[in-house]
Design brief:
This protein is mainly alpha-helical. It contains 9 helices and 3 strands; from the N terminus they run H-H-H-H-H-H-H-E-E-E-H-H. Helix 4 crosses helix 7 and helix 5 packs across helix 7. It comes from Fulvimarina uroteuthidis.
């Protein structure tokens, strides 16, 4: 009863439940107990997710990391990609070179914390169902790129099939930057995916982040865009 009363009092005062428990001395402050209270996550998946966020968003902000993490989860949930986080992040030429092996230094803590939030269900609202992004500001001539968000130095977009393009104008990066509404093609109940995704699907350029001499190399993966 004392514990419950203390927690209720703390909650009314705006204190997190975990903090209340720790202050009451009713639980130890070790990591496993805290994770159990908050909802544990798989450490391996958390690290893989954090790596994608860390090396693709330039550690710019939680918002930028959350956007990248949302893309990762959208891919996990897609039949066109592997069905677990680490396999998605490790796919050849999909994320920054060395994403699975390079050392994370400054900003690692934020990446790990944001990764845990994504694995517990948090998503970037603006990214919606997008599974692709490239460095913000660059443009490409493909007719199927529908932009939905700009965050963390990246522009996030969906690839819209030819049969759906007549329903609404595809949004440009300029539209998103200006705050214009980007049509939600998911409302048209897009049919199941049948197209083969290009090998280099996420970062079309980002020369600096990926160390490529030619920012358009990733355009020539395993086929052209529709």
């Amino acid at each position: 009863m004392k514990t419950r009363s203390f927690i209720n009092t703390a909650a009314r005062a705006g204190l997190p439940v975990v903090a209340a428990l720790l202050m009451s001395g009713c639980v130890r402050s070790d990591k496993p107990v805290v994770e159990e209270v908050l909802g544990s996550v798989d450490v391996k998946e958390q690290t893989c997710m954090a790596r994608a966020m860390y090396f693709e968003s330039n550690r710019s902000s939680e918002d930028g990391m959350l956007a990248v993490g949302t893309v990762v989860m959208n891919r996990v949930e897609s039949a066109s990609f592997p069905d677990d986080v680490c396999s998605v992040v490790a796919q050849n030429r999909q994320f920054a070179p060395g994403v699975m092996t390079r050392e994370m230094t400054g900003g690692r803590e934020l990446a790990m914390a944001t990764a845990a939030k994504v694995l517990r269900g948090e998503r970037h609202e603006g990214v919606r169902t997008a599974r692709f992004f490239h460095t913000a500001g660059h443009s490409f001539s493909y007719p199927n790129m529908h932009y939905v968000a700009i965050a963390g130095g990246n522009s996030f977009y969906e690839k819209i099939g030819r049969d759906l393009r007549s329903h609404a104008r595809l949004a440009t990066q300029a539209d998103v930057k200006a705050g214009r509404e980007s049509f939600d093609f998911a409302t048209l109940r897009q049919p199941a995916e049948t197209a083969i995704e290009p090998t280099s699907a996420i970062a079309l350029d980002s020369t600096k982040a990926r160390g490529q001499s030619n920012p358009f190399m990733s355009l020539f993966g395993s086929g052209s865009q529709d």
